[in-house]
C-alpha cells in the first residue's frame, strides 16, 4: 500500500522519539525526586494504552470494552516468563506484545464480523473470562499473586524506577509511531472508511474484515506491551490489581477526552486524566479518583465525544489537514 | 457472441415470511445499458444487494466476468469490476471529497500511480473539480450524487449498478447525472440503471427489465417493453 | 469428573432455580434491549446496587429481602425514568449511533461499581431471609429455600410481566413501539412517554432481581461485571424481544452453568457465558426464539 510512510517517515520518527526520550530523561532527572519517575511511568503507560485502544476504537469505530484483558495478559506474560526463564524485562515486553497480538487476532477473527454493537457486547466478558483463567493458574500465583524480584541496579540508569519509566516512554513512543504510520497510510484511510460507512467501504474495495483484524491485533499488541512492565513496577502482581477495571475505563476515557482522530488525542487525554487521577489518589482516595474518571467519561460521551481536540477544531472552524 | 458479463439465475430471497425476490434471472452483456424498473418494494434494491454481495444468503447463482460470486465478499466483487452506488449517497463523512475517491484507487489499484492525481482527474470528469478539499457535509444533493458516481467509477468497473442515482433531483440535475452515466458507458462500462424517473430510463436504457412483487415481468428492448399491456397495468395500475 | 447421578440431578435442580432467577434478571434487559433497542450495559450494575440497598434495609429493619426489593423497586423505576430521559436527550433524539449510548451506559456501570465501593467498601454483602437455612427435598433431590423462594417469586414476576405486556393498554403500546413508532404517534400516543415507562419498568425489574440476588448469594461491588456476560448471553440466546425466549434461555443457561460447575469446577462459569454469547452471535444471532433478521 502506498502512502506517506516510507523510509523517511520511520527515520524521522525514530530520531524524534529518541530525542524526546533523552529530553524526558534529563527533565525527569532534574527533578531529583524518584516520584517523578513513578508518575512518568503511569502517564506513559496510560498514553500507550490509550493510543492502542484508539487504533481500533477511534480509527475503525469498534469499541472494545475489554482493554484490561490485553493489558493484564501482558503483565502475566512477564510473570510467567520471568518465572520460567528469568527473562529480562525488555524481552518480556516483546513477549507481552506477542501475547496481546495473539489475543487480539483470535478475538478479532471471531467477533469482528459482527456489527459494532454486538462486537462491543462480546468484549464485555473478555476481562472476566481471562481473570477467571488466571485465578486458577497456580503457576503464576493464582489468586494470591506472584512476587517479582527487581534487579538491584541497572547500568546507565540512576535507579531501576528511572529505567522502568524510560522503558515505558519507549513503549509509548513506539505506540505513537505505529499509530501515526497507520494514520498516514492506506490502512488508516481504509479504517476511516470502515468507521464512516462499512457497507460503502466494502462496496468500493476495502477489505473490511482484514483491516479490522489487523487493527485489533496491533491494538492488542501495544496494550500487552503496556502491561508487561507492571509486575516489575510493583514487585508484585495479583489478578485483582492486574485486571482492575480502571485500566479498561481509562483506555476509553483518555482518547475520548483528548480526541479520537489522531494519536495526539490519547496522549493529551493520558497526560490530563493521568495527572488528575494521581492528584486525586494522593489527596483524596483511590476510589475517589475512579469516581472522578467515571464522571468525566460520561460527561464527555454525552457532551463532547470529539474530545478536546475536536472542541478546539470546531471552535476554530478550520480543518486539520491530513 | 461475446460472453455475458453478468449472469444472475433464479435469484430468490426471503426475509422471514416475506418473499422479496422469487426466481429472478437477469443477464447483462459487456457495455450494455439496462434499465431496471418496478414499483416500490418490488425487490429492485434487494436484487442489487444480492449481486453486490451486501446480502450473501440467497437462492440462485450469480456469475460475473466468468467468476462464480457465491460466498464472495463485497470487496472481492468490487475487485472483479462490479461497482454500485447507493440509493441514499453514502459518502465517507470524515474524509474529504478527494479522499473519498482515493479510497477505491488505493485498495483496488494501488500500483496505478499516485492516488491524489488520479482522484483529481476523476473528480474533474464528474464536475467536482473545485470541491476536492470540501467535506461531504458541505455538498449539495446533486454533488453528493456526483461524488457517489465518481467513487464508484474510480473502481474502474466493468459493470456499474446505479441505484436511483437521480431520485429527488431537478430536471436539469437529472440531465447532468444522465450525461455522466452516458459518458461512463461510452468509456466501456456496462450500466444497470434502477430508476423511477421514466424519461431518464427510457432515454438511457437499450433494454428494459420490469420487476413487480419480486418477479420479473418483462425483459426486452425498451420500446417493446414499454408497449406491453401487462407492464402498463402492473406498473401504472388500471 | 464426577458422574454421580444424584449429584447431577441436584445440579440440574439448583440450575433450574438459578436459571429462573437469571431469567428474571434478564427480563428487564429483554425489555430495554429487545423492545426498546437500548443497550443498557448498566442493567446488572443497577441490580447489584439494589442488592446492596436491600441488604442494608434488611439489616436495619429485619424486613424480608424480597419484600424490601418490592418497596425499593418503584424508587429504582423512577430513577430509570430519569435515566431514559437523559439518554434520550443526549443520544436517541440526536440520532446518534448506538455505540455512544453503549459507552454512556458502560460509564454508568463503572460509576455505580466505584460508588458502591466508596459507600460500602470492598466487603461482600449478603441478606439472610427467615427461610435461608431451610431445604425442601423430594427424595434425594434438594431445593435450598434460599434459592427456591426467589425462583418462585421470579416466575411470578415473569408471569406478571407477560400479562402486563399482553393485556394492558400500556403494555401493548410498549410492544408496539418496538415495531412501529410512527403508527403509535399517529394513534396519538407519545413514543417517548411509552419508552420512558418501559425503561422505568426494566430498571424496576432490575431492583426486584437485586433483592432475589442477595438472598441467593453474596455480592460485592464488582459482581456486575460477571453478570453482564451472563445476562447478555441469555437475552441473545433467547432472542431479542421474546419474553418466553428469555425465560427458556435463562433456565437452560442456569442448568448448563451449574452442570459445568459441578463437573468441571466453578471457575468455568464466565467462560460458559462468553462461549454461548459468541456462539449465538456468530451462528444464530436471532437466538432460539427471536424474529429472523
The most extensive interface between chains reads: A-C, 41 and 42 residues
Distance between the termini of chain A: 17 Å
User: Low-confidence parts of chain B lasting 5 or more residues at pLDDT below 50?
Assistant: none
Q: How would you describe the shape of chain A? A: globular
Strand content of chain A: under 5%
Give the N-to-C terminal Cα separation of chain B. 40 Å
* Beta-strand residue fraction of chain B: 25-35%
Question: What's the arrangement of strands in the largest beta sheet of chain B?
Answer: 6-7-8-3-9-10
Shape of chain B: globular
Outline the structure in words:
- The complex is a heterotrimer of chains A (322), B (238) and C (293).
- Chain A has one domain.
- Helices cover 76% and strands 1% of the residues of chain A.
- Chain A contains 16 helices and two strands.
- Chain A has helices at 7-31, 34-59, 67-85, 89-111, 116-123, 126-135, 160-184, 186-196, 198-203, 208-227, 230-234, 239-242, 245-258, 264-283, 286-303, 307-316; strands at 146-147, 236-237.
- In chain A, helix 3 packs across helix 10 (208-227).
- Chain A is globular.
- Chain A starts with 6 loop residues before the first helix and ends in a 6-residue tail after the last helix.
- In chain B, 38% of the residues lie in helices and 25% in strands.
- Chain B is built from nine helices and ten strands.
- In chain B, strands 6-7-8-3-9-10 form a six-stranded mixed β-sheet, with helices on both faces. A four-stranded antiparallel β-sheet of chain B has the order 2-1-4-5, covered by helices on one side.
- The radius of gyration of chain B is 18 Å and the shape is globular.
- The model of chain B has no long low-confidence stretch (mean pLDDT 91).
- Chain C has one domain (5-283): ABC transporter involved in vitamin B12 uptake, BtuC (Orthogonal Bundle).
- The mean pLDDT of chain C is 89.
- Chains in contact: A-B, A-C.
- The A-C interface holds A 61, 63, 65, 110-111, 113-114, 116-118, 120-122, 124-129, 131-133, 135-136, 245, 249, 252, 256, 285, 287-288, 290-291, 294-295, 297-298, 301-303, 305 and C 39, 41, 86, 90-91, 97-100, 102-104, 106-108, 110-111, 113-115, 117-118, 222, 225-226, 228-229, 232, 236, 265, 267-271, 273-274, 277-278, 281-282, 285.
Amino acid at each position: 500500500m502506498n502512502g506517506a510512510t516510507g523510509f523517511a517517515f520511520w527515520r524521522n520518527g525514530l530520531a524524534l522519539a529518541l530525542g524526546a526520550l533523552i529530553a524526558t530523561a534529563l527533565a525527569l532527572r532534574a527533578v531529583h525526586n524518584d516520584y517523578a519517575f513513578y508518575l512518568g511511568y503511569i502517564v506513559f503507560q496510560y498514553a500507550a494504552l490509550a493510543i492502542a485502544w484508539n487504533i481500533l476504537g477511534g480509527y475503525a469505530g469498534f469499541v472494545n470494552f475489554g482493554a484490561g484483558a490485553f493489558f493484564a495478559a501482558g503483565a502475566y506474560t512477564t510473570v510467567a516468563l520471568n518465572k520460567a526463564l528469568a527473562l529480562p524485562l525488555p524481552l518480556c515486553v516483546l513477549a507481552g506484545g506477542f501475547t496481546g497480538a495473539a489475543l487480539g487476532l483470535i478475538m478479532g477473527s471471531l467477533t469482528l464480523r459482527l456489527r459494532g454493537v454486538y462486537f462491543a457486547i462480546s468484549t464485555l466478558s473478555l476481562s472476566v473470562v481471562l481473570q477467571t483463567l488466571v485465578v486458577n493458574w497456580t503457576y503464576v500465583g493464582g489468586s494470591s499473586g506472584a512476587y517479582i524480584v527487581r534487579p538491584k541496579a541497572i547500568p546507565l540508569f540512576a535507579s531501576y524506577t528511572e529505567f522502568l519509566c524510560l522503558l515505558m516512554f519507549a513503549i509509548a513512543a513506539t505506540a505513537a509511531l505505529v499509530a501515526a504510520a497507520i494514520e498516514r497510510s492506506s490502512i488508516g484511510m481504509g479504517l476511516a472508511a470502515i468507521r464512516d460507512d462499512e457497507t460503502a467501504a466494502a462496496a468500493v474495495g476495502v477489505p473490511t474484515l482484514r483491516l479490522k483484524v489487523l487493527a485489533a491485533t496491533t491494538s492488542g499488541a501495544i496494550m500487552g506491551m503496556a502491561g508487561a512492565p507492571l509486575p516489575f513496577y510493583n514487585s508484585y502482581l495479583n489478578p485483582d490489581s492486574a485486571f482492575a477495571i480502571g485500566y479498561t475505563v481509562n483506555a476509553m476515557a483518555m482518547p475520548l477526552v483528548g480526541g479520537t482522530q489522531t494519536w495526539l488525542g490519547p496522549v493529551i487525554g493520558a497526560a490530563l486524566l493521568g495527572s488528575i487521577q494521581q492528584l486525586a489518589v494522593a489527596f483524596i482516595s483511590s476510589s475517589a479518583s475512579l469516581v472522578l474518571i467515571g464522571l468525566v467519561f460520561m460527561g464527555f460521551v454525552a457532551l463532547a465525544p470529539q474530545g478536546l481536540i475536536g472542541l478546539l477544531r470546531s471552535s476554530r472552524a478550520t480543518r486539520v489537514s491530513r | 457472441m461475446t460472453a455475458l458479463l453478468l449472469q444472475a439465475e433464479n435469484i430468490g430471497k426471503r426475509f422471514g415470511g416475506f418473499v422479496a425476490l422469487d426466481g429472478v434471472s437477469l443477464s447483462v452483456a459487456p457495455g450494455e445499458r439496462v434499465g431496471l424498473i418496478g414499483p416500490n418494494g418490488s425487490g429492485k434494491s434487494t436484487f442489487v444487494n444480492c449481486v453486490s454481495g451486501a446480502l450473501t444468503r440467497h437462492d440462485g447463482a450469480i456469475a460475473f466476468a466468468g467468476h462464480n460470486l457465491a460466498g464472495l465478499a463485497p470487496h472481492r466483487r468490487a475487485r472483479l469490476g462490479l461497482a454500485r452506488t447507493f440509493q441514499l449517497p453514502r459518502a465517507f463523512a470524515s474524509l474529504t471529497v478527494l479522499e473519498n475517491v482515493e479510497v477505491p484507487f488505493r485498495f483496488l489499484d494501488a500500483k496505478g500511480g499516485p492516488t491524489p492525481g488520479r482522484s483529481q482527474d476523476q473528480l474533474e470528469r464528474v464536475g467536482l473539480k473545485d470541491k476536492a478539499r470540501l467535506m461531504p457535509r458541505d455538498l449539495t444533493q446533486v454533488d453528493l450524487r456526483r461524488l457517489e458516481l465518481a467513487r464508484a467509477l474510480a473502481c474502474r468497473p466493468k459493470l456499474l449498478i446505479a441505484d436511483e442515482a437521480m431520485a429527488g433531483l431537478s430536471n436539469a440535475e437529472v440531465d447532468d447525472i444522465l450525461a455522466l452515466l452516458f459518458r461512463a458507458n461510452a468509456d466501456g462500462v456496462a450500466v444497470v440503471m434502477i430508476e423511477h424517473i421514466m424519461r431518464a430510463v427510457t432515454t438511457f436504457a437499450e433494454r428494459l427489465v420490469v420487476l413487480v412483487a419480486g418477479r420479473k415481468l418483462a425483459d426486452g428492448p425498451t420500446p417493446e417493453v414499454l408497449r406491453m399491456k401487462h407492464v402498463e397495468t402492473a406498473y401504472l395500475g388500471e | 469428573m464426577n458422574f454421580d447421578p444424584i449429584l447431577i440431578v441436584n445440579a440440574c435442580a439448583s440450575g433450574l432455580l438459578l436459571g429462573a432467577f437469571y431469567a428474571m434478571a434478564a427480563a428487564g434487559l429483554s425489555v430495554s434491549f429487545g423492545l426498546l433497542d437500548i443497550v443498557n450495559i448498566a442493567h446488572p450494575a443497577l441490580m447489584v446496587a439494589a442488592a446492596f440497598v436491600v441488604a442494608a434495609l434488611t439489616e436495619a429493619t429485619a424486613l424480608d429481602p424480597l419484600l424490601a426489593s418490592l418497596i425499593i423497586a418503584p424508587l429504582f423505576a423512577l430513577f430509570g425514568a430519569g435515566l431514559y430521559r437523559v439518554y434520550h436527550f443526549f443520544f436517541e433524539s440526536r440520532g446518534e449511533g448506538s455505540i455512544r449510548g453503549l459507552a454512556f451506559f458502560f460509564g454508568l456501570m463503572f460509576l455505580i461499581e466505584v460508588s458502591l465501593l466508596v459507600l460500602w467498601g470492598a466487603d461482600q454483602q449478603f441478606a439472610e431471609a427467615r427461610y435461608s437455612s431451610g431445604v425442601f427435598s423430594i427424595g434425594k433431590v434438594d431445593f435450598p429455600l434460599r434459592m427456591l423462594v426467589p425462583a418462585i417469586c421470579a416466575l411470578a414476576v415473569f408471569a406478571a410481566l407477560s400479562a402486563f405486556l399482553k393485556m394492558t393498554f400500556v403494555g401493548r403500546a410498549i410492544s408496539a413501539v418496538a415495531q412501529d413508532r410512527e403508527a403509535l404517534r399517529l394513534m396519538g400516543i407519545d413514543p417517548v412517554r411509552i419508552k420512558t415507562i418501559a425503561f422505568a419498568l426494566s430498571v424496576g425489574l432490575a431492583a426486584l432481581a437485586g433483592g432475589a440476588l442477595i438472598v441467593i448469594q453474596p455480592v460485592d461491588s464488582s459482581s456486575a461485571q460477571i453478570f453482564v456476560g451472563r445476562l447478555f448471553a441469555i437475552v441473545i440466546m433467547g432472542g431479542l424481544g421474546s419474553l418466553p425466549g428469555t425465560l427458556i434461555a435463562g433456565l437452560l443457561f442456569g442448568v448448563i452453568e451449574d452442570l459445568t460447575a459441578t463437573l468441571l469446577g466453578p471457575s468455568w462459569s464466565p467462560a460458559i457465558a462468553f462461549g454461548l454469547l459468541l456462539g449465538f452471535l456468530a451462528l444464530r444471532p436471532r437466538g432460539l426464539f427471536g424474529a429472523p433478521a
